[in-house]
Write a structure and sequence with these properties.
Blueprint: E1 2-3, E2 7-10, E3 18-19, E4 24-25, E5 29-37, E6 44-57, E7 64-71, E8 76-79, E9 82-85, E10 95-96, E11 101-104, E12 106-116, E13 124-127, E14 132-136, E15 142-149, E16 153-159, H1 162-165, E17 166-169, E18 174-177, E19 183-186, E20 191-197, E21 219-224, E22 254-257, E23 259-261, E24 266-274, E25 277-284, E26 307-312, E27 317-319
Parallel strand pairs: 1-10, 5-16, 14-18, 20-27
Antiparallel strand pairs: 1-5, 2-7, 3-4, 5-11, 6-7, 6-9, 6-12, 6-13, 7-8, 12-15, 13-14, 16-19, 17-18, 20-24, 21-22, 21-25, 23-24, 25-26
């Protein structure tokens, strides 16, 4: 995850001190910090993007454009761009990129992140076999939901959820970073959910017991709501799916890959920034072919008893271990 730090910004405003139509107080300001977070996909070593600018847009005022970056950890001083490996900032880890940027209070309708692409030296993906593949983003930039600034200091996080937003394009032998699954969360209210995963689940049932590598293809799917029938729990898909999607299929809200903690000899998952609410979590051991766009009709959960319901309050750091016994959290 990334937090935005000392920057050069172009800030404009207009009109009187208070906009009654959208609640924007032009005189009051907020010190803003913004972060990037990732729920990492499997079988990739690096996902590098080079950020050119970050723009905040609101109605009735000029854009706030951040286009120069001073990042101590990266040894950058007033750099025009910065490169970041999203896989290095998982869970609640953060890289400070903008810190205490003074902005007018009010509702910002959009955050636009411009990514430099079209060159394998700028934005790229390093695959498991060390192949380096070009990564592209929409030409207009990544258009993300906005935010409301109303306090003296606020911090938000952009959650990339690469399992949903990153897709391989065979026609061009490249990756596309789309906006599907990318969210903007308020750190003041965001919850988290972490836990250990029993590796006996990796190859306990068919067809997972036939995997050449039991450590591949294991995922945690998180769905909004509780009391969901297992038949509704689907793999990742979008409205652009080329395959038929059942009417009652519910796509995951977000997805987590599993990481091995060699220090304590365990497998773990982490959802770093979540809105408070009710969730259904499902483990599945046969997800290697889960496409980020198409409905693949994968069996979720697998094993069939691996479903857990959790309720997270604002700011809660929830813990739920995934165990072969299937005991609820």
């Amino acid at each position: 995850m990334l937090l935005f730090a000392s920057v050069t910004a172009s800030i404009g405003g207009c009109g009187c001190g208070f906009d009654c139509n959208n609640g924007n107080n032009r005189d009051a300001t907020t010190l803003l910090s913004l972060g990037f977070s990732d729920a990492a996909p499997e079988d990739l070593k690096q996902v590098i993007i080079e950020v050119d600018s970050i723009t905040f847009r609101r109605s009735g005022a000029e854009d706030v454009v951040v286009d120069s970056f001073t990042i101590t950890e990266l040894d950058l001083i007033e750099a025009d761009t910065f490169q970041i490996d999203l896989l290095q900032y998982r869970g609640r880890n953060q890289l400070l990129v903008i810190d205490d940027l003074e902005m007018g209070r009010g509702t910002y309708s959009e955050i636009l992140i411009r990514v430099l692409d079209g060159d394998i030296n700028l934005s790229y993906v390093q695959e498991a076999d060390d192949s380096v593949v070009e990564l592209n983003a929409p030409a207009a930039g990544l258009s993300l939901p906005g935010m409301t600034l109303s306090a003296d200091k606020q911090q938000f996080t952009v959650e990339f959820s690469l399992a949903q937003s990153l897709r391989f394009q065979a026609s061009s032998d490249s990756y596309l970073l789309a906006t599907d699954g990318i969210r903007v969360e308020d750190n003041a209210t965001a919850a988290s959910l972490t836990g250990r995963v029993d590796n006996a689940l990796f190859d306990e049932v068919s067809p997972c017991d036939e995997k050449e590598d039991p450590e591949r293809g294991n995922r945690i799917y998180l769905y909004q709501g509780i009391g969901l029938p297992d038949s509704q729990l689907a793999d990742v898909f979008t409205t652009s799916s080329a395959t038929t999607v059942p009417d009652d299929a519910q796509a995951p809200f977000t997805v987590a890959a599993l990481l091995e903690n060699t220090l304590i000899d365990s497998w773990e998952y982490a959802f770093g920034f979540l809105p408070a609410g009710d969730y259904t979590m499902a483990f599945a051991c046969d997800t290697a072919d889960d496409d980020s766009v198409d409905f693949d009709d994968l069996v979720v959960p697998l094993p069939e008893d691996q479903v857990y319901e959790v309720t997270l309050s604002e700011g809660e750091q929830g813990v739920c271990d995934i165990d072969i016994s299937g005991v609820s959290c």
